[in-house]
Amino acid sequence: MSISPRAGKTADPATLVNIPRLITAYYAELPDPAVAGERVQFGTSGHRGSSLERSFNERHILAVSQAICRYRAGQGISGPLFLGIDSHALSEPAAASALEVLAANGVEVMLATNDDYTPTPAVSRAILAYNRGRTAGLADGIVITPSHNPPADGGFKYNPPNGGPAEPAVTGVIEGWANEYLANGLAGVRRMPYGQALRAATTHRFDYLDAYVTDLANVVDMAAVRSAGLSLGVDPLGGASVRYWGAIADRYGFDLTVVSDEVDPTFRFMTVDWDGKIRMDPSSPYAMQRLLGLKDRFDIAFACDTDADRHGIVTRSAGLLPPNHYLAVAISYLFRHRPQWRADAAVGKTVVSSRMIDLVTAQLGRRLHEVPVGFKWFVDGLVSGELGFGGEESAGASFLRLDGSVWTTDKDGIAPTLLAAEITARLGRDPGEVYRELTRQLGEPCYDRVEAPATPAEKAALKKLSPQQVHSTELAGEPIESILTEAPGNGAAIGGLKVIAPSGWFAARPSGTEDIYKIYAESFRGAEHLQRILGEAREIVAGALAPGS
C-alpha cells in the first residue's frame, strides 16, 4: 500500500471538491440503469456514491425512498420514520428528495429540531426508545450519510424497527424495487414539492440532541468522569456530532474542549489520509493529525467520524490507539464494571478483528460471538442482552446500558469515546496504559490491513471460495489450523476466507465498491512474521482463485 507524500498534511486547496458542481450534478445528471455503477447498490452500510459519477443522484434517492415506503407498507410498519443527516454536501439535497417522497406517501417523518445534523446512534436510539413496549405501529429510520468517506460522496441507509442496519434480505428487496423505478423513469414514485412536504401534517420535529444527550447517563458513568475532573478534548471532524459535545459538557459538568466546531462541506480543515484523499476517519493517524498535535493538553481526547458512528481515542501514553487495541480495552473494562449485565452476556466481534479480543474474552470467562463484517450481525444479540458488546476493527462499536438493556443497535462513536473517559477516571490510567498491561498478560500482536487488485470476476470468485480450494498447509512457517469461509458465531458466509495458524492469521475479502480485495492479518510473533503472513496471504489467495484450483 503506497503512502501519499501528502498524507497527514492539510488538503491542497486545488484538490477540494467543487460544491456547486457537486450539487448541480445531483439534480442534473441522470444515471443510466443499464450501467452497473449507476444503479442503486446497497453494501454493508447502505447505498453510497457520488453525483459526479452518477452513482448518487436525485433519481437514486427518489427511487430508494419510494422503495422504502413500499417495504414499510408491506411489513405493516406504520409508526414514525426518524430521519437523520450528516454534514456531507449531498446529505441535505438527499434529505429534501427523501422528504418529498415520504410525505407524498403519508409517512410520519421526524426531522431534527433546528435542522441539526444527526448522528447515526441518535437515530438508532430514537427508534428503539419509541418502539420499547410496542408490538404495533413501530418506527424505523433513514440515515443519510456516507460515513467517513470523502466530501464528494453521499450515502443513504435504512434502519428497520430493530434500530440497526437493515439485513441483506431487506436491502435486497429495497434495492431491487429502487432499480425497477429507475429503469421505468420513476413511474410509480409519489412525490410532492419540498415546501409542501415540510408543511405536511405528517412532518414533525424531534429533538434528537436532547434525547440522546440526556440518556447517555444510562450508558456511561458520567458522575465518575465529572468527579475525576479530567481535562477532555474532542474533535468532531466537522461532522454530525459538532453540537452534541457542548451539550454533553453543559449537562454533565465536564471540562471538555471542542478543538474545532467548524463545519465546511469541502472539509478543507482536514489533514489527508494515507492515499492523499480527505476522509473523516478517526482511526487514521493521517486524518487525526490536528488532535494528535494537541494530545498533551488533555488527560484523554477523542474524535468521531462524520455521522458519529466511529470513534478515535487519543491518549497521552500511546497517541492514537488502533481500533483493535481500544476494543480489547473496552471489553476488558466493561465486563468487569457492569454488574447488572447478564452473567452469560457474550462478546461480539467481526472475523477480521484482533485475536487479542479472543484472549481478553477467554480471560473474562465470557463467550466469543464471531460474525462476518457488518454491524447488522450484532443487532439481535444487543436487543436481547445476549451480547454485552459488539465491535469491529474499523472503529465501530456499541454496548449495553448500565442496567443491561439495549442502547443502540447501530454503531455509536460517542458512547465509546466517553467510556474512554470513564476508564481513565475509574482506573487512574488511560486506555493506552491499560492496553500495555493486557499485552504483558496476553502477548503483543501486530496487525495490518492491505489491499490488492482484483477483477470483478476474481472478487465474485473470492466470495464463493471453499476451504478445499486452499492447497497450502502452512502459513509463515506454522501449520494451518483451520480455514474458515463461514463465521463461527452464526455460520453466516464471511464473503471470503480466513486462514488461521497458531501465532497468526489472515482474512481476505473483496471490496464492495472498488476492484480490489482487502487482506487483514495479525501475528503474535512480531512485525517480520506479520509481513511473511501478508506475503503468503497474497499467494494463497491467488492460488485459490486460479482456474482449476
From TrEMBL:
<dbReference type="InterPro" id="IPR005844">
    <property type="entry name" value="A-D-PHexomutase_a/b/a-I"/>
</dbReference>
<keyword id="KW-0460">Magnesium</keyword>
<dbReference type="InterPro" id="IPR005852">
    <property type="entry name" value="PGM_a-D-Glc-sp"/>
</dbReference>
<dbReference type="Pfam" id="PF02878">
    <property type="entry name" value="PGM_PMM_I"/>
</dbReference>
<dbReference type="InterPro" id="IPR005845">
    <property type="entry name" value="A-D-PHexomutase_a/b/a-II"/>
</dbReference>
<dbReference type="Pfam" id="PF00408">
    <property type="entry name" value="PGM_PMM_IV"/>
</dbReference>
<dbReference type="InterPro" id="IPR005843">
    <property type="entry name" value="A-D-PHexomutase_C"/>
</dbReference>
<dbReference type="InterPro" id="IPR036900">
    <property type="entry name" value="A-D-PHexomutase_C_sf"/>
</dbReference>
<comment type="similarity">
    <text>Belongs to the phosphohexose mutase family.</text>
</comment>
<feature type="domain" description="Alpha-D-phosphohexomutase alpha/beta/alpha">
    <location>
        <begin position="323"/>
        <end position="440"/>
    </location>
</feature>
<keyword id="KW-0479">Metal-binding</keyword>
<protein>
    <submittedName>
        <fullName>Phosphoglucomutase, alpha-D-glucose phosphate-specific</fullName>
    </submittedName>
</protein>
<dbReference type="Pfam" id="PF02880">
    <property type="entry name" value="PGM_PMM_III"/>
</dbReference>
<dbReference type="InterPro" id="IPR016066">
    <property type="entry name" value="A-D-PHexomutase_CS"/>
</dbReference>
<dbReference type="Pfam" id="PF02879">
    <property type="entry name" value="PGM_PMM_II"/>
</dbReference>
<feature type="domain" description="Alpha-D-phosphohexomutase C-terminal">
    <location>
        <begin position="492"/>
        <end position="538"/>
    </location>
</feature>
<dbReference type="InterPro" id="IPR016055">
    <property type="entry name" value="A-D-PHexomutase_a/b/a-I/II/III"/>
</dbReference>
<dbReference type="InterPro" id="IPR005846">
    <property type="entry name" value="A-D-PHexomutase_a/b/a-III"/>
</dbReference>
<feature type="domain" description="Alpha-D-phosphohexomutase alpha/beta/alpha">
    <location>
        <begin position="40"/>
        <end position="178"/>
    </location>
</feature>
<feature type="domain" description="Alpha-D-phosphohexomutase alpha/beta/alpha">
    <location>
        <begin position="210"/>
        <end position="315"/>
    </location>
</feature>
<keyword id="KW-0597">Phosphoprotein</keyword>
<keyword id="KW-0413">Isomerase</keyword>
